TrEMBL record:
The gene is nanE. Pathway: Amino-sugar metabolism; N-acetylneuraminate degradation; D-fructose 6-phosphate from N-acetylneuraminate: step 3/5. Coiled coil: none annotated. Pfam families: NanE. This is Putative N-acetylmannosamine-6-phosphate 2-epimerase.
Amino acid sequence: MSTELLDAVRGGLIVSCQAYPGEPMRDPRTMAQIARAAVVGGAVGVRLQGLDDIRAASDVGVPVVGLWKDGDDDVFITPTLAHALAVAEAGAHIIAIDGTRRARPDGLALAETITALKAAHEVLVMADCGSLDDAIAAEAAGADILGTTLAGYSGDRPKTTGPDLDLIAEVVGACTRPVVAEGRIHTPDDARRARAAGAFAVCVGTAITHPSTLTSWFVAAIEKEN
């Protein structure tokens, strides 16, 4: 299954379909509809947050990257083994987990979490990393995919205006696992540049699926002319 999943997303666009708590679109049915619309547009995979959202998009027809954001600690993206197991049981094909070197709430090492998850379910693991050292450690821990999701958010690197192209290139050069570029990819050209930096696939969320943010960008541009 791992080869088939990787082949399915190779060189393509994964669309992250997420809404924050309290927002009008924070509904599993809505997120599933957005995921289906993204697939119509050519997405080769979708990324969904929360067990209900994952279940609602079970028929989307492309690999589902699932995660569960929970807690107020620094590590909140599928923070424990229990969270990862639940995401797999909800139907995700690829389980996205915090892939930094920070301590996890359940006290397990990243390698212990990945080993136990794979022993229970036939899934791939995407490690959301914030630095090159994170990626190297995550690969050694058994992660199948390395994401740049947390670049600029974990304290290891400055937050770039657009995608952290330098980190993408560094991870591609130092690691053997596929690298998914994610984080602040706001335009088609950003996505193109991420692929040119060596990314195996590109994941875009806000710039496609978050109308509140998109609207604010246009409003800000117009207000500059007032």
